[in-house]
Amino acid sequence: MLTASRGRHGEGKVTMGAQYYGADSENGDRFDDPSEDALFMLISDLNDSDNTFVVVQPDEDDPVWFASVAVLDEGGYEIVRCDTTRNEHEVTTATSINNIARDLTIWMAARDFPGRPTRQVSDF
Asked: Dihedral of CA 104/106/111/116: which sign?
C-alpha cells in the first residue's frame, strides 16, 4: 500500500512510510512515493519566501540519490539530480513545472530501490 499526505507544517498524518522514496518541501508538505501530479503540486506551491525548495530521496538513513527543485531569485527553478552509485551530478534550470515534474518522474523511475521488483525484458 502506498500512502500520501499533504498537510501544512506537519499537520498531515502518515500511517505508513514510503515504500520507495518521499518528497518533502520546506514548509512541511510531504508525499510518499509521489506521482508526477504530486510533484507538480509541490513545485507549484514553491515561493521565494518560506517554501523555497522540494527534496525527493529514498526513505533510508544514507540515501545514495536525491533530486531537488529550488526557486531561483531571477525566476524559474534550479533542478539538482545526484546519484552517487552512477557518479551523476547534474544541475539545470527550467521554467515549466510540467516539464520539471515529468522529467523528475522519469529520472526517479530509473533509480535503484531495494526490494522493488526488477524489470525484465524478454524476446518472445
From this structure: positive
C-alpha cell belonging to residue 59: 526513505
The closest alpha carbon to 105, from 41, 53, 46, belongs to 41
Provide the whole-model pTM: 0.77
Q: Read off the pLDDT band of 40 (50, 70, 90).
A: very high
Q: DSSP readout, 49-65?
A: SS--EEEEEESSSS-SE
Q: Please give the single-letter amino acid code of residue 110.
A: A
- Could you tell me which of 18, 5, 16 has the C-alpha nearest to residue 114? 18
Gap between the Cα atoms of 117 and 36, Å rounded: 21
DSSP label at 27? T
Nearest to 73 by CA among 101, 52, 104: 52
**Grid coordinates belonging to 3:** 500512502
The CA–CA distances, whole Å, from 116 to 6, 50, 54, 121 equal: 25, 35, 24, 16
